[in-house]
Amino acid sequence: xxxxxxxxxxxxxxxxxxxxxxxxxxxxxxxxxxxxxxxxxxxxxxxxxxxxxxxxxxxxxxxxxxxxxxxxxxxxxxxxxxxxxxxxxxxxxxxxxxxxxxxxxxxxxxxxxxxxxxxxxxxxxxxxxxxxxxxxxxxxxxxxxxxxxxxxxxxxxxxxxxxxxxxxxxxxxxxxxxxxxxxxxxxxxxxxxxxxxxxxxxxxxxxxxxxxxxxxxxxxxxxxxxxxxxxxxxxxxxxx
Length: 240
Fold this sequence. Notes:
The protein is an alpha/beta fold. Helix content is 43%, strand content 16%.
């Protein structure tokens, strides 16, 4: 039976995530693939193809509903845990791909704890994250960064943060920076309860080979260092 190859590939990826218990990623794939199949069925004239598509749609919709209930149950009990292993030199791990599915209208503030937001490229990574947050979270009102102070080039770090604070204010987002000499853990805390813990923090991308290669701007095309990402959910996120 000839059906849309794009939908097939997306749904296959969903099954792979489902098998690995990466349920929120599987859910995104199922939803995207289902939408393609539904659109295809609406314009299909062959009754046999229509029947086949209907069966497939119902099959994946049932599985998607099961996953939704499973994720909700794990969230309610505080047992939700999803792990992503980023392999050395792998690509396809931009911030949006990695945890963009958790960035929505329910996010009112974000706390980023990362001791290494000091050098130029590290601050640029934080800027990229800030752009994604502003674009994805329509009700975002505050971003708080907890990091260590760069004593070697403190002026540059302070200058970059000041410029970012002024720009975020144009979007009615308040930017707060707190410094800690003892900070070690790296995590992104969303007011909606999701917590993304990245072993290497935001700085898990390798430097591009040159300034005119793929991956300079699109981080999905940038090679990565090996790291582990743990995603959990808590009803009691840190307040500030």
